[in-house]
Amino acid sequence: MYYWTNELWRLAYLVGGLGALGWVLGEPGWGLAGGLGLFVFIHLRHLRELYVWLIRHPHQEPPVGTGVWGDLFDRLYRYHKHQRQTQQRLRDIIRRVQDSSEAMRDSVVMLDRRGDLEWWNSAAEAMLGLQAAHDRGQHITNLLRDPRFVEYFNARDYREPLTLPSPIRDDLILQFQLTLYGDDERLLMARDISRLHRLEQMRRDFVANVSHELRTPLTVLAGYLETYGEYADQLPPRWQRGIVQMQGQTTRMQNLVDDLLLLARLETDHRAEQAAPLAIDSMLDSIRADAETLSGGSHHLRIEIETPQRLSGIEQEIRSAVSNLVFNAVRYTAPGSSIVMRWRAWPDGTQDGAALEVSDDGEGIDPVHIPRLTERFYRVDKGRSAATGGTGLGLAIVKHVLLRHDARLEIESRPGEGALFRCVFPAERLVNGELQASSAGKASAAGSGQLPQ
Question: From CA 39, how far away is CA 47, in angstroms rounded?
Fold first, then answer.
């Protein structure tokens, strides 16, 4: 306000002074016009100096101005200097980020909102074969063309990493992780896990080989023990008890070896051969019969079929997964408990998928154990699990079977409220078709609360 008041006084002095001079000379109008013209000339000269300074010499000291122009020059200079300092700090930060990314052994690739390459570190050039001269601005899927990566990129669900071989070296195994940031931009990181992959492969091969080698001596032991068992009545009582215990432990070892071999096959065999529409109703009925034999008729088992859709998969593997869930329910629930096998649409009221559920009204499981239940040999109650003859591999087998069928395992349980194990299959695994007439009978029996015999 101070400077504007001064400008008004300056205008008054110029117009008044030149107007008075013109009045003395007999030309007051020319005097007034001259005062206004001089005032405009001064402002135009300052405006030109401002333009020349901003265009040609922005980093130099501002021109000297009077009045409001002097204040304007000073303010613009301070603002411009602050902006230069801010830009320099940002450039320093970007340079440090790039230097730190260059020092990383992991590949770092920055993608814009369209998925085009913007920047990457030197590790990305070594692992992914990126070249600054040709690849900048290219879409990432033009360079990483593996269908699994393209599907992972387009799915926009980056909670879990993706493991793939390097596009330039088959012996280099990379773990890809995408992260969304900024304006729908993406950060791609690739880590070399070749050593871990080899160690894991060695572990799987070791377990598979040892398990395979154990089958022969266990078979021999089981055969001799069975022979001795036939003449147990001729042996002393102490020997009889020893033979019975050895038979039980040999059987347990054989079950453990069989489960380890099955797990090894599930982990190493990634083929999806023999996938076909499954008769869920007859499969569940067969599993129910086996479970009743295991329980000795002390549990109530029920089947509920709530959707006519069939599941496309490998019957032997799906049967193994569901059998493990049902047999666990039989082993770990008290006699008289109810166990339900249910096939239904999932989520409720949609056709987005379907679920195979096994639920019971037993003691339940503390939620603290649920995240680790699918780990190998993990047991909630080690003493009771050993007594029931479990190997500790059942849920690990279920997990791998479901992974091979694009499905997932959900577990819901609380102490005293029973347990629910849900195998959720995507819509791509479902086949439209009517189930057999026997399933309708079982479904109606389930709806009326009657147990199938």
Answer: 13
300-305 and 310-313 strand pairing: unpaired
Predicted confidence (pLDDT) at residue 436 exceeds the cutoff of 50: no
Residue 118: both structure tokens together? 């913007």
Question: Is residue 176 helix, strand or coil?
Answer: strand
Query: How does DSSP assign 413-430, residue by residue?
Result: E-TTS-EEEEEEEEGGGE
Q: How far apart are CA 299 and CA 336, in angstroms?
A: 5
3-state class (DSSP) for residue 311: strand
Max intra-chain CA distance, the chain: 153
Neighbour count for residue 44 (Cβ, 10 Å): 10
Q: What is the DSSP string of 241-288?
A: HHHHHHHHHHHHHHHHHHHHHHHHHHHH----TT-EEE-HHHHHHHHH
> Would you list the domain boundaries of the chain?
2-94, 104-192, 197-268, 276-447
Decide if 105 contacts 84 (C-beta within 8 A).
no
CA distance 284 to 322: 8
CA distances from 453 to 122, 123, 396 (A): 68, 65, 31
Least confident of 10-19, 66-75, 239-248: 10-19
| Residue 144 CB-half CA count within 13 A | 27
Architecture of domain 276-447: 2-Layer Sandwich (3.30)
Q: Average model confidence (pLDDT) for the chain? A: 79
Please report which confidence band the pLDDT of residue 9 belongs to, taking 50, 70 and 90 as the band edges.
low
Alpha helices in 104-193 (DSSP H): 122-128, 132-135, 140-143, 147-155
